[in-house]
Structures are given as structure tokens and as C-alpha cells.
Amino acid sequence: MSRIKLRTWLYYVLMLLLFCVGAYLLIQKGSDVEANYHLTTQSVSTQVLSPEPNLSNWEQFKVSVSHNMGEPITHLLLQIIAILLVSRLFGLFFSKIDQPIVIAEILAGIVLGPSLLGHFFPNIFNFLFAADSLPNLYILSQIGLILFMFVIGMELNMKALKEKVSQVLVISHASILIPYFLGMSLAYVYYEEFAVNQTKFLPFALFIGISMSITAFPVLARIVQEKGLTKTHLGTIAIASAAIDDVTAWCLLALVIAISKTGDSVSALYTVGLSVAYILLMFFVIRPFLKKIGEIYQNIETLNKSIVAFLFLVLISSAFITQFIGIHALFGAFLAGVVMPPISNFRKLVIEKVEDVSLTLLLPLFFVFTGLRTEIGLLNSPYLWGICGIFIATAIVGKFVGGAFSARFLGESWHDSLALGTLMNTRGLMELIVLNIGYEMHILPPSIFVMLVIMAIVTTFMTTPILNLIEKVFPPKNVEEEYIRKQSMGIFKVLIAVGNPENGRMLLRVAKNVLEGVKNTLSVTVLHITPGTDTNPIYGDQFAEESFHKVKQEAEQLNIPIETEYKVVDSIENAIVRMANTNNFDFLLVGAGLSLSGIPFFKERAVFKNIGWLNRLINNISKQQVVFYPGTLIKDKTKYFIEQSNCTVGVFVNRGFSEISSAAVLLYSEQDEFLLHYARRLLRNNNNASVTIFDLNRVVASSEKVARYVEDLEKQFPASVKLNKQNKINSNSFSKFSLMFISYQTWNALLEKDKSYLSNIPSTLIINKKNSRFHSDGRRRQVLPQISEENVDE
Predict the structure, then answer these.
(1) What is the DSSP string of 364-375?
(2) Which of 37, 217, 329, 614 could serve as 246's disulfide partner, Cβ 3.0–4.6 Å?
(3) Are the C-beta atoms of residues 394 and 130 closer than 8 Å to each other?
(4) How far apart are CA 326 and CA 314, in angstroms?
(5) Is 427 in contact with 460 (CB distance < 8 Å)?
(6) Closest-CA residue to 536 (of 325, 278, 349)
(7) Single pTM value for the model
(8) Helix H segments across 559-629?
(9) Domains of the chain, with CATH numbers?
(10) CB 652 within 8 Å of CB 591
(11) Could you give the CA distance from residue 279 to residue 286 in angstroms, rounded to a whole number?
(12) pLDDT tens-digit profile of 268-283?
């Protein structure tokens, strides 16, 4: 040990000793002062206090824990833990069935409420959500809503709305006015039975109308994004219509609240006047000022805490003013988001700082608070459930007629019109916000509140299935013609699914070397998917640009024209297979192996590969970074791609791939003959590559077809082709090659025989051969002679 280190440690030990001695002396002196004080007070006091009963150490600990559990902050934290756990569990399930996360959170709130938890486990419910603890939960949930509405306001692109307002204004307002009128009609029918003793007719009718006409812009935007419709004509109209619908609905809601609080429309004019004045102030004074700030602070380096604090001050002040005026704090938060600087980088940075806390932590509290108010047991008769059904049917018909038939009248196709009507029926969170405001103002009776919550769940849940049904009933007309045209031109369509840019570059190199033939033209589409539909749509272009930047550079170097496709979904495997089948690709190329990102998560160890549950656990935790164990790989995503795709699938196992210099082709049966076609293309496209054919099961000797093809290869590429007839292999037989071709069937056969054969393989392309098929009306049929491995390389 050096002298400097020794001196440092001696100084440290001496400092600790001095601290301990000094602390001990201080404690002793303090104890003496404490003892003297108690002796003095006992001698002066004239009252004799009865001593507390002696408790054991364990009993004292239990008393302390019980006291801690009774603290408001402890109770609140326990509630948040329970809410987040249940919300995430429900979210995992609903993401598997392609449903928005908001559905899961709404149902999680109902499960934790009196309808289920309170009904079956009343003691747990009363302990977890004790009445005296709910005010804290309510305040926190309202803060979450304020932050959420601020984000929603920032997500609105006012410039884009101005450009499309003439195009979609009629559709948007028709989808508000028609359901609004139907809702008011329902209010007239059921007012006397449910609400006459609680509220006046006007506010009741206005709230029923607004609940029927609302559209959840954020949920709709995420569904459009997940379906890959963002840049399509339908997606553009749907998002613009929903945005205008949202702005109009919130203005109407502010008016409805003003009328409801004052009692009549004349008295509400004072509130409306103040509201209009405040809106003008925000747009013509605050917005220009914020725009100048945004131009200065539009990157993460300059957006410091002082500016963020100022923006939060604007948000809270706006919410306070609108609450003070009488049109609810949420409208002020929404307005504060709308007037934020219209600079995309600035808005992304601010949303990034607000969204995670509001959506992930605080917003689920609102759903649970809604669930606490939703007592399904109030609908305790077929008659009441029938009325609930009438409310649901009226809401669906009103929005559908307003959106779909208005769009059709204005010249949209039946497909786009019906899809638009379905999308506008998405109510989700925005509906719950409206319902809770009406409930808190004692306008909506508990039974009507429950019916409308169920209506919100049903109309949001049905959106995705109905959109899928519309796609089947009204398939795009030009798909078949385009497919036939490309087939006649000899275009070989390849879909490359990438998760990581580095992996995308490797897959492009593989496609260039292995899939490009003489008589066919390679048409490559690169697909990148961001997992999680709760990803904000405002980040879509940014993520797409970052993901495809290196891939596009590689494509330019390889001289491959590519198209790019970006999606945000929860189920990545489903989305890849759906795109491959729907767009009639001839080849699907995906990555797997030691690590999709190129970074090993765990080193291979014998102890891991012998424990099945540990393999699965590691793969689930690492997600994209899948640990390479041959048996686990083929049983997971690879098997799903191969079984569900209607085209040939190639799964590329990355084992330190850089370039192809030598390749191994494994022949185990006559069905593996198609692998020789890929080897032939490789040799044609890469003059520096060599191919070794491993005849593992005397296939060349037993199959005349295979023998003839091998002979042709040896004649055409005498210096580059070698036939290895040794059928005895071990784990090191293939490790020296840079790429290995193997069929899916042979892979399975070798796994069953001895997994060690594949434990030390090079980068490998596992191929399952299928003929390309064209889809029509849900059926697979062949339109032209298919482009397959036999005729694309000749």
C-alpha cells in the first residue's frame, strides 16, 4: 500500500474514533440533564401520575407499527401501491387482446371499488379505502387530471386543425350535435324517474347530451397510431375530427357547468363572459409571450428548472382561474396546454417531463376513484339493465350516424366512413372526466352514473374489433391489382422487422446477399415497432427518424431501395405477422439470437441451459435481448412467426455477424433442397464467399434432384463450393463459418437428437419455406405463378 493511501486510511479511522468518543460523551451528558429534569418535576408536582402498563418489546413494536399504519401518508402510499399493481396487471392482459390501456385502468378501478372488492371482501375494502382516507386520494387524482389535460392541450396541433377545419368541421360537429340531441331526448324520457328529486331538468339534459357526444382524442390517436393509419387519409381525418370534437366538447362543457352552477342560462352569461375574456387573454397575450420563451428554450440543454417551474406556474394559475370563474380547473389546464409555444421540440420536452408522472402514477388514482363511485349493484333488475342497454345503443347510434353518414354524404368511401364513425365512438377517459364532474355537482344520480360508465367502457372496447371487421368486409380495392402488377414484374417483396438499428443494418446485408436474384427485383420494406400503445403519438416521427437513420444509410451503400414503416403496438409479434400477411410479402426476415441489440445479457452457462424455467424467466426479463439457447429460441417467437405467417420466414440468429465470407448449408432431408437456391444466390451476389454443403443424412446419394443441383453448383462455382459427406458432427463443426443456412424442420430434428450440435453455431438463418399467397376475403389463393425459391435465382 502506498504512503498516500496509508495516510488516507489512518486519517479516516482517527476521524471515526473521535466521532464515536465525542458522540458517547454528549449522550451521557444529555442523559444526566434528562434525569435531573424528571427528578425536579416529580418533586414539584402535586399529582401522582399512574404508570403505564409494562409492555414487552414485541408488544411495543406492534403498537408502533399500528400507529405508523394509521398515519395518513402510510395509508395513501398503500392505496397507491394497490392501485398501480392492479392497473398494471390488467394492462398486461388487455394489451394481449389489442385493447387500449385505458380500458384496463377503468376496469381495475371498478374491481377495486364496491362492485367487486367491496362486495366479496368488505373488510379488505373498508381497510384499504376507508372513508376518512378518500379526500387525500381525491386531491391527488385531481392533480393527475390537471396534468393530463395539460398534456392533451399540448398534443393538439392548432396549425394543422386550421388547415383541415373546412374539411372535417361538418363531420366533427355532426358527431357532436346528433348524439347530443339524442342524449337530451333520453334525459327527457328518464328525468322524472331518476333525477327529478335531485336536480333541475336543464343541467341534467345538458350533461346527458355532453356524455353522449364526447370523443376521447388521446385514445383515438393511439388506436390510429397502432393501426398504422397516422399518415393515411382516414387517419388524418379521424385525428382532426376528434381534435375539433374535443375542443368543441370542452367549450360546451364549460358552458354546461356555468349554466348548471348558476341555475339558468341568463345568469350563466356572467360566467360565460368572464370565460371568453380569459380565453382571449390566454390566446392574445399569454400565447405570444410563451412563444418567445419557446424559441429560446427549445432544447433540453436550455430548458432548465426555472423555465419548467414557470410553465407549471402558468398551468396551475390557469387551472385556478377557471375553477374560480366557475368552469372547472380542468378547462384551465387544457387551455394552458393549447397556448404553449407551437414548437414541436419544446412541446416534446415539456410533455416528457409531465406525462410519465401524470399517466403512470396519478391518473390510475382517478380511475379507482371513479370505480369507488361505480356500484354495479345499483343495476339490480332486468329493467335497469335494459335502460343501460338503451343508453349504450343511443350513444353508439348517435356517434355512428353523425360520423359515418356525414362522411359518406361528403364523398368518403364506405370503408373510411364506417371506420370514422367507429373511431368517433371512442370515449374512454374523457367520458369519465365529464361523468365525474356531473356526479360531483349532484346532477347525475348514482344509477345513471353507473350506466354511463358502462357505456364508456363498451364504446371504447368495441372500437378495435369493429375496425378489424370493417377491414375484412371492405378490403382496399387496389391491393389485388398492385399485387398482380408486382408479380408480373418479378418483384420479390421482403419485409424486414427490426428492433434495433444495428440489427437492421445486418438484416439488410443478409437480404442483399441471400435474397436478391437475377430475374427478380428485390422490394424491401423495413418495419420498426415501438412496444406499448401508451407511447405518446407526438414522439412517432422522432422515433421513426431515429430508428431508420442507420438503416437508410446502409441501404444507400448497398444500393437497395427501401420503404419504411413505423408502428406503435403492444403485441410486436402479432403486428409483424399481420403486416406480412395483409400486404402479401414473399419473405419475412426477423432477428433473434444471443441478443437482438448486439449486447449479451447473460453469458452462456451449462447451469442455465438445463433449467427451463430460468431460461424463460431470463428471456422475459431481457425482452428484446433474448439469451440464446437453441431450444428456447425455437419455442418462443420463432415458432409463432413460422406458424402464423403465410410467406417464407427467415429468422436470423446474430452471433457476432459482420460479413459473409464462408457459409454452411445443412442438408438433412430432400425437403432441404431449397436451401441450395439461397446458397446459389449468395455465390452470385458475393464473389468472396464460399459454401460448404453438409450432407448429414446421405441426402445427395438418395435424392437425384438434390444430387443434380449440387453437381450444377460445383460446376458453376468450382472454387467456392465444397461437399462434406461426413454425417458425424459435433458442437464445433460449424463454428468456423460466418453464416449457416438451416431449415426450420432440420433445426427441430437436430434439437430432438442432440441440442449440443447447435450450441456453438455461427450466425444462422433458419428458414421455413412457404409459397407466397394472396389474400382475398379472408381466404388464401394463388393469383399468378408464385415467385418462389425455384424461379427467382435462375
Answers:
(1) HHHHHHHHHH--
(2) 217
(3) no
(4) 18
(5) yes
(6) 349
(7) 0.70
(8) 572-582, 606-609, 612-622
(9) 101-473 (1.20.1530.20), 479-657+763-781 (3.40.50.620)
(10) yes
(11) 10
(12) 788 888 888 999 999 9
